[in-house]
Design brief:
This protein is an all-alpha fold. The protein has 22 helices and two strands. The relative contact order is 0.09. The model is unreliable at about 1-30 and about 485-495 (pLDDT under 50).
Length: about 550
């Protein structure tokens, strides 16, 4: 990271004004070696270090002891999450240029801490769901845990990145292991196809983003976001077109990660082909990576070109929420994998809502993006919870059909109530107060920015989404198939449906997400306390 950061020490426009000559350092010149704040980077370094330990230990641990690798990974992610507490002041930076201490490559501010909590907490829930999934599907434990931890480390690095090189590196460190995780089920045709589609489309988007970054660097002579923002304010006329092209192309890769239309085509097949915990991981952590990158490059690096990315993101938001909800509405309850596909298309629709405050930041105060962070926290908790319940149901109903959830309350009341609460939060209905709060916050950001047309489209889509969320919720409390409504409870007691003991890691994941959602519903202002206002201090 230090070597990459040194690139931006070049004077502005040095790439087009001729070679740069440097004089020999005079006696007493300050050292060019950057200092490192190890406490600030610990939440990123710890998962990466545990990943290496797991990979090496896999060579020596006997097969019967492989589950220990999973618990080591869970412990590492839990420790990394706890280590965010000493950083809660949000006032640390590191890897700063010695000639310009304000230009840093890593910042542990409030924005970073909130997103890192989302990423590491989501990875922890994914790890709990994976403990039994790795064993049951006989996936290679060492490789699985190494890839998951590596991806989590890259995802945790991205919100702290404050230069374009580190952003791209973090994006790829988070993404490359995910390709392999999607295809981890050996011999499964759907898994292999999903991994290949995910890989090819993602690599193409990354290549486009890299070209955009190179254009931006050519126009500004810097990679640090703060310096890029300053120099884009006064770009020479002959470089203006190059800078605009760089801004547009840089956004493409992050738009792909958010599954924004028209970069969404990989989502349903990838979620269906991936192991269920990884589908949940991509739906939450993958989106967090994309939205974090979009926020950093638009609000911090490219405010001078807000007239370009603002309208573009507003249109993308409208298209994304509309197409996602329309596709979710068409899912047949009896079709195999319909539950996963509905969650996949629902995640596309939710991505549209998440884009609204970022687009609004181009027209109003940039603290509008606090609404995106608040919505992302709500979405992370309840969507991972929905996937956790789906993992539980899949133990006896492996076809992942929506109809498999009929009568779930008669069989597993706690799981049914949890899923109902998660779905109501996604719909924005009570008692899921946090879902309603998040949607109102996003809606208000569009209105305050003067995007009335986008607010209307969002309102229509929220109403459309109510149908498929409530249809699934109602199904949970209906009598099981072939059983009369009045004798549903008796039939369940007589053992009409098979019931297996829920593995405690899966139960822990459901409880953890449910408690988080309930706490946030009881005190939704906690979400915005760190998310808004203090994200980017003036």
């Amino acid at each position: 990271m230090t070597a990459l950061s040194g690139l931006s020490a070049l004077p502005a426009h040095s790439a087009v004004t001729g070679p740069v000559t440097t004089a020999a350092p005079a006696a007493g010149t300050a050292s060019l070696v950057q200092s490192v704040d190890w406490l600030a980077i610990t939440p990123v370094v710890l998962p990466a270090a545990v990943a290496l330990v797991v990979l090496i230990a896999d060579l020596f641990v006997p097969e019967r002891r492989k589950p220990l690798l999973g618990w080591l990974s869970v412990a590492g992610l839990a420790a990394a999450t706890v280590l965010l507490l000493p950083l809660r002041a949000g006032d640390r930076t590191t890897f700063c240029l010695t000639g310009d201490p304000a230009a840093c490559s890593y910042a542990a501010d409030h924005f970073t801490l909130v997103i890192q909590f989302l990423v590491l907490g989501g990875a922890l829930v994914t790890a709990l769901l994976s403990v039994t999934a790795v064993r049951d599907a006989r996936m290679p434990a060492g490789e699985y845990w190494f890839l998951l931890l590596s991806s989590a480390a890259g995802a945790a690095l991205l919100p702290a990145s404050r230069d374009l090189a580190t952003l791209i590196v973090a994006l790829e460190v988070a993404s490359l292991p995910a390709f392999a995780l999607v295809g981890m089920r050996r011999g499964d045709r759907l898994s292999s196809e999903a991994a290949l589609k995910f890989f090819l489309s993602s690599v193409t988007a990354t290549a486009v983003s890299l070209m955009g970054v190179s254009f931006v660097y050519a126009a500004t002579g810097s990679l640090h976001l703060s310096q890029v923002a300053d120099r884009l304010e006064d770009v020479p006329g002959q470089l203006d077109t190059l800078a605009m092209a760089g801004v547009a192309l840089t956004l493409v890769g992050f738009a792909f990660k958010t599954a924004a239309v028209p970069f969404h085509f990989w989502v349903p097949d990838t979620y269906v082909g991936a192991p269920l915990p990884i589908a949940g991981y991509l739906s939450v952590i993958g989106k967090a990576v994309g939205f974090t990158g979009l926020i950093l490059v638009t609000v911090i690096a490219f405010p001078a070109y807000s007239e370009i990315w603002g309208p573009a993101l507003a249109v993308l938001a409208a298209l994304t929420m509309t197409l996602g909800n329309a596709a979710a509405l068409r899912q047949s309850a009896d079709r195999p994998n319909s539950a996963v596909r509905l969650l996949a298309w629902s995640s596309v629709g939710q991505a549209g809502y998440l884009l609204v405050p970022i687009a609004a930041a181009a027209y109003a105060d940039r603290d509008q993006i606090g609404s995106t962070v608040a919505y992302a926290l709500m979405y992370a908790a309840v969507n991972l919870g929905a996937f956790a319940v789906a993992a539980l149901v899949a133990r006896t109903k492996p076809l992942h059909r929506i109809s498999d959830y009929r009568g779930l309350y008669a069989e597993r009341p706690a799981a049914a109530l949890s899923l109902a609460f998660f779905l109501l939060c996604l719909a924005g209905l009570p008692p899921g107060i946090i879902g309603l709060f998040a949607k109102v916050t996003v809606f208000r950001s569009a209105v305050d920015a003067g995007l009335g047309w986008l607010a209307v489209i969002m309102a229509i889509n929220v109403v459309v989404a109510l149908y498929y969320y409530l249809r699934w919720t109602a199904l949970l409390f209906r009598a099981p198939e072939g059983v009369a409504e009045g004798v549903a409870d008796a039939a369940a007691g007589a053992g009409t449906r098979p019931k297996t003991t829920a593995p405690w890691p899966v139960t822990a994941a459901i409880v953890l997400t449910a408690v988080t959602a309930v706490v946030l519903s009881g005190a939704p202002q906690l979400v915005l306390r760190f998310a808004a206002g203090s994200l980017f201090p003036q």
